[in-house]
Design brief:
The complex is a heterotrimer of chains A (364), B (292) and C (236). Chain A is mainly alpha-helical and 364 residues long. Chain A has one domain. Chain A is built from 15 helices and five strands. In chain A, a hairpin with a 2-residue loop joins strand 1 and strand 2. In chain A, 50% of the residues are buried. In chain B, helix 1 packs antiparallel against helix 10 and helix 3 crosses helix 8. The longest helix of chain B has 31 residues. Chain C is α/β, with parallel strands linked by helices. Chain C contains ten helices and ten strands. Classes of the chains: A mainly alpha (364), B mainly alpha (292), C alpha/beta (236). At the A-B interface, helix 5, helix 12 and helix 14 of A face helix 4, helix 9 and helix 11 of B.
C-alpha cells in the first residue's frame, strides 16, 4: 500500500525515485511538493510580521518540535530503527548549548553547530552497539536511556557544569545590532526579542529541514530506505549496513539535539525535569500522528504536540467545575491519538494525504 | 560489614518487587513477543485503585480486603486490555505495538494524576515500619519478601500443576499447535495479561509504602524490572525472578559502595545494554533466533 | 452419510485460491489416503478441515458444516485430532504434559487411564514421560504427536506426512501402529503422505490430488495398481 511495508522490494536503482513519475491533476508530484514547500516557507517568513509576543514564541516552539520529530522520523520512518529515548539527545543538545554559553561565554548563535556535532557523535556512538540490537531490543535500550537521563543530569559529579537539579539560567538571546538596525530602518520599530527568537529558530529549522529534504531524496536517503525495507538485500547490494545505520542514528540525534539547543535558547533556562520520558513520548506522538515516514508529517507533528496541551487546557477550563487536574488531560489525549492513529491511519496524517493524492493521481 | 548486610537484605526486599515486575514482563514477552512498556504504569494505576479502596476518602475497606479486590480488578483490567486493545492488532508490525504500549503508558500516567491528583500519598502497610531485625531490616520489608515469595509460589504451582497453566504455557510457546488440541489461544492470552497485571499490582502495593504513591512512582522500578528480566533471561520466568532479586541487591551495592545513589538508574541502563549485547539469553533463557 | 463429507472445497491464502472445489469423503472407522506431489493441496485440505485456512464449500462432520468455525471449537466438538506437518510438539514441556494437552478439551475422569493406552501403543514414550519433549528424537516426537492426538479420544485423526524425516524402519513401525490403532480404537484417519506405498497399504480408499483438484479416487488397491499412479508416485 504505502512505502513502509517491511518486506518490500529494494529499488533496483538507488538513483531513481518512484515518486518522480506520479502526476496529480496534471501536475507532477515533485513539483506539487515543491510548491507546497514554498508556501510553507512563505508562511514561516510572514508569521513574525503578523504576530508578536507569546504567539510568535509558540510558533517558534512548533518549529523546534518539528526539528525534534524530524530527528525521530529520519531514524524510525526512513531507516526502520526504533527509539524511545530521543529525549536524551534532546537533552544533550540543550545542555551542550547551555554549557557553552554558561561556562565558555560563547554567544548563543555560535553554539548550534558545535552542539549539533556533539549530538551527532553521541548518536553515532549509541548507534554502534544499537546495531546489534533488533527492533524491539533497541526500543528497550532507548527506553532505559530515556528513563535514566534526568537522574544522570542531576548527578553531583557534573553539577558544576549542568547546574544539577537547579539547572542553568541563560542569557537572553538579543538580536545582533545590524539586524536590529535593518529592521528599524524598514519598520520603524525595534525588533522584539520574541520575534528574534522565532526568526533565529526559523532560520535554523529551515536550513535543517532543507538538509533533511535533500538527504531523503538523495542516493544516501534511498540507501537508508532500502535498509529499512529489506536489510538483507540492502547488504547484498553492497550497502554498508553498520556505517549507514550508525550514521542514521547520529544524524537523527543531531536533529533532535539541535531542537534541544533551540529549546534552551528560546526558554533561556533548562533543568533536568524538561528531559523526562514524557518528552520522548511527545516526539513519538508527533512522529506517529504526523506520519513517521514523512518530512511534511514532522511539521504537522510539531504543531500537534504543541497544540494538544492548549486544547487540553481549553477542555479542562470549560469543565473546571468537574476537573481538578487539567495537567492529566494532555497525556490522555496523546495516548488516545496514538492508539487512534495505529488503528485507523497507520501512516499518520501524511499517510492520509498520500492516500488522497493517490486517489486523484495518475502515472506518467 | 553491618552496612553491607543491611544493604544486601534491603536489596533483597526491593529485589522482590523487581522480581514481580520482571515476571510480569516475561509473561507478556513469552506470550506475544513484545515488551509491555506500560507494565509499571498499569501497576501504579492498580495501586491507586487499592488506595481508593482502603483510604477514608474512598471506600475505607480493610487492607487485605482492598489488597485482594485490587488484584481481582487488575486481573480483569489486564485481560480487558488484551482483548480490547491488543487482540485487534496482533498481526501488526512491531512499531505499532510499541506505539500502543507507549500510548497506554501515557494514558495511565495521566489518568492517575487526573483522577487522584499529583500530590504524593501515603500508602498503608499492614506490616508496619518497625525494625524487624534492628539495623538490618524493617517489618514492612520482611512483609514484602514474604508476600512476594508466596505469590511466586502460587504462580509457579499454577503453571506447573494445573491444566489451564499448562495450556497457557502451550499457547504462548506454540499457538498453532495449541489451537489444534483445542486450547483457546485468545482466551489464554487474556488470562496471561490478567495475571501479569495482578502480579504488577502486588508489586505496586508493596513498594508504595516506601516510595509514596505518585503517578511516576513506577518509572524507575519498571526499569529495574526490565533489567531483572534481561539479566535472568527473557524467555525464562524463573530466570526473571532470580534476575529481579539480583538486580535489587546489585542496585544497593552499586548505590552504596560504587557509584552513589544518584546513578542508580544509569546502572540499570548499562546493565540492560551490556547484557543484551554480551549475553542476550541472560542467565537462564534461550537465545532468541533473529528472524530476518 | 459419511462421517466427514467435503463438497466443493475451496481454500484461500489471501487472494490466492489453493483448492479449486473438490469432493472428498471419509467413512466411519476407515483410513483414507490423500496422495499427491508437493503443492497439490494435501496439507491445505487438512488445514481447511480444522479451520486453519479460509475455506469455501461445505465440510460436514457428523452432519454439521464446520466451515467458518474456529479450530478450537472444531477440535472440541467433533473430536478431530490433527497431527500436523512437523509434529507440532510443545518442545518446552514434558512428554506427559504434551499428552495432557492432547486431552485439554476433555472433562471426563479417564484422562489418567488414557496415558496407559498411549504407552501401550508407544512404550518408548513411557520411558521418556518426564523428559522435555524437545529432547526427544524425531521418531519419538512423531509418536508423541500421534499419542497426543489419541488423548483426545478422536473420531477422526488427520495425519500430515507422518513419515516425514523418519528412518524407513521407524516409518514402517509407525504405520503398523497406525493400522493397529485404527482397528482397535475405530478411529477414522485421513492420511496425507508422500510415501504412497505405505499409506495405500493401510488405507481402504485413496484420493490423488493435483494442483488443488482431485485427479483420481477409488479403493486403495485399485489406485495402487493404476499404471499412471505407479509411474508418477510409487516409482516402479
Amino acid at each position: 500500500m504505502t512505502s513502509t511495508q517491511v518486506n518490500g522490494n529494494v529499488p533496483a536503482f538507488l538513483n531513481e525515485n518512484p515518486k518522480d513519475r506520479i502526476v496529480v491533476l496534471g501536475v507532477p508530484l515533485p513539483l506539487l511538493e515543491r510548491v507546497g514547500l514554498f508556501v510553507l516557507l512563505a508562511a514561516v517568513v510572514v508569521l513574525p510580521m503578523v504576530y508578536d509576543g507569546y504567539d510568535i514564541y509558540e510558533f517558534g516552539k512548533i518549529l523546534m518540535y518539528m526539528l525534534a520529530v524530524l530527528g525521530l522520523n529520519l531514524l524510525t520512518g526512513f531507516n526502520g530503527q526504533f527509539s524511545l529515548g530521543h529525549s536524551a539527545f534532546f537533552a544533550v543538545g540543550a545542555y551542550s548549548t547551555a554549557i557553552m554559553m554558561d561556562q565558555l561565554g560563547m554567544p548563543y548563535w555560535t553554539t548550534i553547530i558545535p552542539a549539533a556535532a556533539v549530538c551527532f557523535v553521541a548518536g553515532f556512538l549509541f548507534g554502534l552497539p544499537a546495531l546489534r540490537l533488533d527492533g524491539l531490543f533497541l526500543a528497550l535500550a532507548t527506553f532505559a536511556l530515556a528513563i535514566a537521563t534526568p537522574q544522570l543530569l542531576k548527578y553531583d559529579g557534573i553539577a558544576h557544569l549542568t547546574g544539577g537539579v537547579q539547572g542553568i539560567v541563560l542569557d537572553t538571546p538579543y538580536p545582533p545590532a545590524w539586524i536590529d538596525s535593518i529592521v528599524m530602518s524598514i519598520t520603524g520599530e525595534e525588533l522584539s526579542v520574541d520575534r528574534w527568537k522565532y526568526m533565529f529558530t526559523a532560520f535554523v529549522a529551515v536550513i535543517m529541514f532543507a538538509g533533511a529534504w535533500n538527504l531523503v531524496h538523495s542516493r544516501t536517503g534511498r540507501a537508508l530506505i532500502a535498509i529499512r525495507d529489506n536489510p538483507l538485500s540492502a547488504k547484498t547490494m553492497g550497502i554498508n549496513l553498520a556505517m549507514f545505520k550508525s550514521s542514521a542514528f547520529g544524524v537523527s540525534a543531531m536533529y533532535t539535539g539541535v531542537a534541544g539547543s533551540l529549546f534552551a535558547i528560546m526558554d533561556e533556562y533548562l533543568a533536568p525535569e524538561s528531559f523526562t520520558f514524557a518528552e520522548a513520548i511527545k516526539f513519538l506522538v508527533g512522529g506517529v500522528v504526523g506520519g513517521i515516514a514523512s518530512l511534511f508529517g514532522a511539521i504537522f507533528g510539531g504543531w500537534f504536540v504543541l497544540e494538544i496541551p492548549n486544547i487540553a487546557d481549553l477542555v479542562a477550563s470549560s469543565l473546571a467545575d468537574y476537573i481538578n487536574n487539567p495537567q492529566g488531560l494532555t497525556g490522555l489525549i496523546y495516548g488516545l491519538f496514538l492508539i487512534f492513529t495505529v488503528y485507523v491511519m497507520p501512516m499518520g496524517a501524511a499517510g492520509l494525504v498520500q492516500i488522497l493524492v493517490h486517489r486523484i493521481s495518475t502515472k506518467r | 560489614m553491618d552496612l553491607f548486610i543491611e544493604q544486601t537484605v534491603s536489596g533483597l526486599a526491593t529485589g522482590a518487587i523487581y522480581a514481580c515486575l520482571a515476571l510480569a514482563v516475561v509473561m507478556i514477552y513469552q506470550a506475544i513477543d513484545h515488551f509491555n512498556f506500560a507494565q509499571g504504569e498499569m501497576a501504579m494505576f492498580s495501586t491507586y485503585i487499592a488506595w481508593y479502596l482502603m483510604d477514608d476518602a474512598g471506600l475505607g475497606l480493610p487492607f487485605w480486603v482492598a489488597f485482594v479486590a485490587c488484584i481481582v480488578l487488575s486481573f480483569i483490567g489486564g485481560a480487558a486490555i488484551e482483548r480490547i486493545v491488543f487482540a485487534p492488532i496482533s498481526d501488526a508490525p512491531v512499531l505499532s505495538h510499541i506505539i500502543v504500549f507507549i500510548a497506554l503508558f501515557s494514558m495511565f500516567n495521566s489518568l492517575a494524576g487526573f483522577l487522584f491528583d499529583f500530590t504524593p500519598k501515603n500508602f498503608e502497610t499492614p506490616f508496619g515500619h518497625t525494625p524487624f531485625i534492628d539495623g538490618v531490616i524493617s517489618s514492612h520489608r520482611v512483609g514484602m519478601i514474604a508476600v512476594t515469595l508466596i505469590l511466586l509460589g502460587l504462580i509457579y504451582a499454577f503453571f506447573r500443576f494445573t491444566p489451564i497453566g499448562l495450556a497457557m504455557r502451550a499457547a504462548a510457546a506454540s499457538p498453532e499447535s495449541a489451537r489444534l488440541v483445542g486450547v483457546r489461544v485468545g482466551f489464554m492470552l487474556a488470562l496471561g495479561w490478567g495475571l501479569a497485571a495482578s502480579v504488577g499490582a502486588v508489586a505496586g502495593m508493596l513498594i508504595a509504602p516506601i516510595t509514596f504513591l505518585t503517578p511516576d512512582m513506577m518509572l524507575g522500578t519498571l526499569l529495574y524490572g526490565f533489567a531483572g528480566a534481561v539479566v535472568g533471561g527473557l524467555t525464562s520466568p524463573l530466570g526473571a525472578v532470580i534476575g529481579g532479586f539480583m538486580v535489587g541487591i546489585l542496585e544497593n551495592w552499586m548505590g552504596t559502595f560504587v557509584v552513589g545513589s544518584q546513578l542508580k538508574l544509569t546502572v540499570a541502563l548499562v546493565l540492560i545494554i551490556v547484557v543484551l549485547l554480551v549475553k542476550p539469553a541472560g542467565l537462564l533463557g534461550r537465545v532468541v533466533v533473529k528472524r530476518v | 452419510m459419511a462421517l466427514l463429507e467435503i463438497k466443493g472445497l475451496k481454500a484461500y491464502y489471501g487472494q490466492i485460491e489453493a483448492l479449486h472445489g473438490f469432493d472428498l469423503e471419509l467413512e466411519e472407522g476407515e483410513i483414507t489416503a490423500v496422495l499427491g506431489a508437493n503443492g497439490a493441496g494435501k496439507t491445505t485440505t487438512l488445514r481447511a478441515i480444522c479451520g486453519m485456512v479460509k475455506a469455501g464449500g461445505a465440510i460436514t462432520v457428523e452432519g454439521e458444516n464446520v466451515v467458518g468455525m474456529s479450530t478450537e471449537s472444531i477440535v472440541a466438538k467433533h473430536k478431530i485430532a490433527h497431527v500436523p506437518e512437523g509434529r507440532g510438539t510443545f518442545v518446552r514441556v514434558s512428554t506427559e504434559e504434551n499428552l495432557r494437552l492432547g486431552a485439554f478439551t476433555r472433562r471426563d475422569r479417564e484422562i489418567e487411564k488414557d496415558y496407559e493406552r498411549v504407552y501401550h501403543y508407544f512404550p518408548r514414550l513411557k520411558e521418556r514421560r518426564s523428559q522435555q519433549a524437545g529432547t526427544l528424537s524425531g521418531g519419538e516426537q512423531q509418536m508423541l504427536a500421534v499419542g497426543r492426538a489419541l488423548m483426545l479420544r478422536p473420531k477422526i485423526m488427520l495425519l500430515d506426512e507422518p513419515s516425514f524425516g523418519l528412518a524407513p524402519i521407524i516409518t514402517e513401525e509407525l504405520f503398523d501402529i497406525l493400522g493397529q490403532i485404527n482397528k482397535e480404537e475405530g478411529v477414522a484417519m485421513l492420511v496425507v503422505e508422500q510415501n504412497a506405498n505405505l499409506a495405500l497399504a493401510i488405507s481402504k480408499n485413496a484420493y490423488l490430488l493435483e494442483t488443488g483438484n482431485v485427479a483420481m479416487m477409488g479403493p486403495a488397491d485399485q489406485i495402487m495398481n493404476d499404471e499412471q499412479v505407479r509411474k508418477s508416485y510409487l516409482g516402479y
